[in-house]
Amino acid sequence: MKSKVILNRHYRIGEVDERIYGGFIEHLGRAVYEGIYQPEHPCADGDGFRTDVLELIRELGTPLTRYPGGNFVSGYNWEDGVGPREQRPVRLDLAWKALEPNTFGTDEFMTWCRKAGTAPMMAVNLGTRGPADAQRLVEYCNFPGGTALSDQRRANGSPEPYGVKLWCLGNEMDGVWQTGHCPAEEYGRRAQEAAKMMKWTDPSIELVVCGSSSDGMPTFGAWENAVLEETYELADYLSIHKYFGNPHDQTPGYLSLPEAMSDFIIRTLALCDAVGARKKSAKKIMLSFDEWNVWFHSRGTEKNSPEWTAARPLLEDIYNMEDALLVGMLMMTLLDHADRVKVACIAQSVNVIAPIMTEKNGKAWKQTIFHPFALTAKYGRGSVLRAVVDSPCYDAEFGVPATARRKISSLRTTSVYNAERGEVVVFAVNRDLSAEMELEVRLEDFVPERVAEWKELRHDDLKAVNSAESEPVAPTDRRDAALDGDTLQLRLRPASWNMIRVKVQ
Ligand code: AHR
Q1: Which of 436, 417, 390 is nearest to 502 (CA)?
Q2: CA distance linking residue 387 with residue 207, whole number of Å
Q3: Which residues line ligand 1 (CB under 6 A)?
């Protein structure tokens, strides 16, 4: 099987915004408690943060972290999580039927972000609360001092404002499962007032308004229309969410899901631009794909853990090799839309549908999906190149549940030119499950010097998983790529994810 790719130095899709490599920490299951925060753990630091997790977060390379939810935020009183710990109330978390001890809150999150080398992306509660409470949180975080709320922050140990730049106006407000869910027009009005007051408090902030919580929602389209009608000039980004799975064990169809992610992005942008056109606005709304990942392995297992307890294991998907292939390709899809997708968050970062897992009394370890994420986040920087791809195709049932059959290219590839590092980075997955692929990548108008690195992620067993005991799914180095003039030549093994860095002049 042969595939060819042509890249040209001058043909570019857009610049990569590093915020597409964001993570997400929600008060959900063991993400916060036993995940990032566990004062009694042997490797906890003076703030109670697990240093093993901090190290892995830095290696994962998420420059942005969304917090505190998710569904959780829509019933959250942020005031419960600040001030002296012994005075903080224990509350019911209706979203996840759990107890919230509030021993970790906004100030702890800001400190954790600083240590983890990530910027906070805060969500406000527009479910059970409203614009005034959202404004108060911006004032608490970002106003320098001299008001009751900013002085409260100072008294709580942070004399300098946090300068949180990016704010979500609620979470998945289109979903009936959301505490305080409401019709689009009502949410649009609520978000508009919150946006006004938040930006009046700190004009430097950027806002993300809720789009659809998946393209399968019956309100998809109508929701975006109504919400953007109210918020178009105030919002900077529209949020979209989508989770992927292989519940019927149809691997070829599963591996075609990056195309479904791409369709969702394209359709949502059409909806945004239609509102902009109607309003004759010069402004373009960008996308914040602030929840995406594989989520299906753990579905239904919530029943096994007792309700109304704190930090009970929830959504602890254990990922296999084929999930890592998919995650790698979903990241390529985000890169392919670099011109309009400016923010994205893998959901989530630790323990809850996450690349990093922890044992309560033991170690932290890397899931299979950790690797394509970390390598793409590290090397997928610069300008995304517009590729011409010629590859054999296969017929796949498209979407889960399957909605149609579609021809899917066996090669999934995206390339980035990093002028600063002087390299072209080719990401490539051979989606064929049994045949090797001979691949040629022509680097037009580049002067290639050498192949600096080729990382391959594969395993004979697509269902292989990592665990605290062993991590059999991990990248290895390959050295058999060749350069012939301006053409890179290599053979991709079946069902493998690859990253090739070519030094160019
Ligand atoms: O990430 C898990 C949950 O999925 C989030 O809380 C919610 O926003 C989404 O439905």
Answers
A1: 417
A2: 32
A3: 26, 28, 69-71, 171-172, 213, 291, 347-348
11-62 tens-digit pLDDT: 999 999 999 999 999 999 999 999 999 999 999 999 999 999 999 999 999 9
Residue 186 DSSP symbol: H
Which of 171, 214, 353 is the pocket-test mutation for ligand 1 (most atoms within 8 Å of CB)? 171
Closest Cα to atom 8 of ligand 1:
70
351 in Cβ contact with 317 (< 8 Å): no
Active site residue 469: no
Q: Is residue 209 a contact partner of residue 169, using CB atoms and an 8 Å limit?
A: yes
Residue 403: Cβ within 10 Å count? 10
Q: Give residues with Cβ within 8 angstroms of 462, minimum separation 6.
A: 251, 320, 321, 322, 325, 433, 495
Burial of 416: CB neighbours in 10 Å, binned 0-12, 13-18, 19+:
buried
H-helix segments, 129-183: 131-142, 148-155
Ligand 1 centroid vs 98 CA: distance in angstroms?
15
- Tell me how far the alpha carbon of residue 243 lies from the centroid of ligand 1, in angstroms: 9
The model scores a pTM over 0.85: yes
> What is the average pLDDT across 70-98?
98
Given the CA of residue 213, which atom of ligand 1 is nearest to it? 10
Q: Specify the residue with its C-alpha closest to ligand 1, atom 1.
A: 347
Question: CA 343, CA 239: separation in Å to the nearest integer?
Answer: 9
- 172 part of the active site: yes
263-278 burial: b if 16+ Cβ within 10 Å, else e: ebbebbbebbeebbee
Number of other residues whose CB lies within 10 A of the CB of residue 322: 22
Residue 189 three-state SS: helix
Q: What is the pLDDT of residues 86-118, one digit of tens each?
A: 999 999 999 999 999 999 999 999 999 999 999
